[in-house]
Design goal:
alpha/beta, two-stranded antiparallel ribbon, 7 helices, globular
Length: 202
């Protein structure tokens, strides 16, 4: 892909939920190196885990981040990170906080230099514009990848809306639902019933 006049690029956060969402996240981590270099840092990949105790908020993790020590992290060469020796990210960080970090930047220790710049950071956006892309000012696309019947979806959507609202960012919250219907009629019907009315639809 090459930059050019009239081509729009919107800074993007992809939130991956459950096994299906994490499979999408792993695939995206492998594809990121093929994206034009100025665009890579304007794509943030996050995962969400169910809370340890009922009533606690969803927690968020970075995907493709060397600081996580994950297999996915080892494939990231986007240059977003200062180095791979930084401390591991804290556990049990609320998902809304992780989304705000993706927007504005994440610090390795909460005080020092940025471990990763946010997708809306001027230092990220300027090279994209220099490459000829149009970038809507202060707007983000937040994709949520999950199975339609994921029990995490409703809370993840609420966390995304909270993060965008609290940080004063305009954006789209979009769903990528991974359910492919099986050919067997009985299994198809069972999945249709399982994925029918969902609490996140409201």
């Amino acid at each position: 892909m090459r930059g050019g006049e009239g081509i729009q690029f919107r800074p993007t956060i992809v939130l991956c939920l459950g096994a299906e969402g994490r499979a999408v996240g792993d695939w995206l981590v492998s594809l990121l190196p093929s994206l034009d270099p100025p665009l890579r840092d304007a794509v943030a990949l996050l995962g969400a885990d169910a809370p340890i105790s009922a009533g606690d908020p969803l927690t968020g993790v970075w995907l493709g981040d060397p600081a996580t020590g994950s297999a996915a992290g080892a494939t990231d060469d986007s240059g977003s990170f200062d180095d791979v020796s930084q401390p591991s990210q804290p556990l049990a960080v609320p998902l809304a906080t992780r989304i705000i970090e993706a927007l504005r930047g994440r610090r390795a220790d909460g005080r020092g230099a940025l471990a990763r710049r946010g997708v809306l950071d001027d230092a990220i956006i300027s090279p994209i514009k220099d490459a000829g892309y149009g970038v809507p000012r202060g707007m983000v696309a937040l994709w949520i990848a999950a199975a339609a019947d994921s029990p995490l979806l409703a809370d993840a959507i609420a966390a995304a809306q909270t993060a965008l609202r609290s940080d004063g960012v305009e954006g789209w919250t979009l769903l990528t639902l991974t359910n492919a219907y099986p050919l067997d009629p009985a299994e198809h019907l069972a999945q249709e019933q399982r994925c029918g009315t969902q609490p996140w639809e409201a």
